[in-house]
Specification:
It is a single chain. Helix 2 packs antiparallel against helix 3. Strand 8 and strand 9 form a beta hairpin. Helix content is 28%, strand content 38%. The protein is of the alpha+beta class. The chain has one domain: Cyclic phosphodiesterase (Cyclic Phosphodiesterase, Chain: A). It has a five-stranded antiparallel sheet, with helices on both faces. A four-stranded antiparallel sheet has the order 3-1-8-9, with helices on one face. The chain is built from four helices and nine strands; from the N terminus they run βαββαββαβαβββ. The relative contact order is 0.25.
Length: 200
């Protein structure tokens, strides 16, 4: 169809430094060895990120306006510091569906940034999120498995990993494109939005 509108599957995210992702990849491997084979679909190393807002499909022609809205948000927020610490699961360790690493540090600054991003991009969001924002790094998703295997996953999580995985300054956030393919999801940066640095 010649007049078909081109769509971009987009989300807004904070990147996680490689050193932090390396520690989390080690955790993924340790859990993978302690859990039934193929019980969890682990997130690829390069895709470990902190989501601020998932937009869904955005018309390509609206990307420029979207960038402008996000640029305005970035100009109103300072650089802040976060750390990855502890492991948990949604909906719970006993009934795990998503395995995550927790976020600590200047979480209030992160929450304010996320709220402003959400407000700024509302007109582009396909489906608004109704749940309260819970900052986390998704490490893996539990596949449909037998109850006894779920119990084994739960047991491994309960023994857990409570260590620190590193901290970093959040100096920017990014508008990302997510492309679905038979070989998995590919992420790429559409635009970067630097936060402000207040001079002491």
């Amino acid at each position: 169809m010649p007049n078909e509108v081109q769509q971009i599957r987009a989300f807004v995210a904070v990147h996680v430094p490689e050193a932090v992702r390396e520690k989390l990849r080690t955790v993924q491997r340790q859990f993978g060895e302690a859990m039934p084979e193929e019980a969890v679909r682990w997130a690829p190393f390069e895709q470990l990120h902190l989501t601020l807002e998932f937009l869904g499909n955005v018309a390509e022609g609206g990307i420029s306006q979207l960038k402008g809205a996000l640029d305005k948000v970035a100009s109103q927020h300072d650089v802040f510091r976060l750390a990855a610490k502890s492991i948990g699961a949604f909906s719970s360790v006993r009934n795990p569906r998503v395995i995550w690493a927790g976020i600590v540090g200047q979480v209030e600054a992160l929450t304010h940034l996320q709220a402003d991003v959400t407000a700024a991009v509302r007109q582009w969001v396909q489906e608004e999120e109704t749940r309260k924002y819970h900052p986390h790094l998704t490490l893996g998703r539990v596949r449909p498995i037998k109850p006894r295997d779920v119990r084994k996953v739960s047991a491994a999580l309960a023994k857990g990993e409570s260590g620190d995985f590193g901290e970093w300054d959040v100096e920017a956030f990014h508008l990302m494109q997510s492309k679905l393919s038979p070989h998995g999801t590919q992420h790429s940066v559409l635009a970067t939005f630097p936060l402000q640095r207040i001079q002491a």
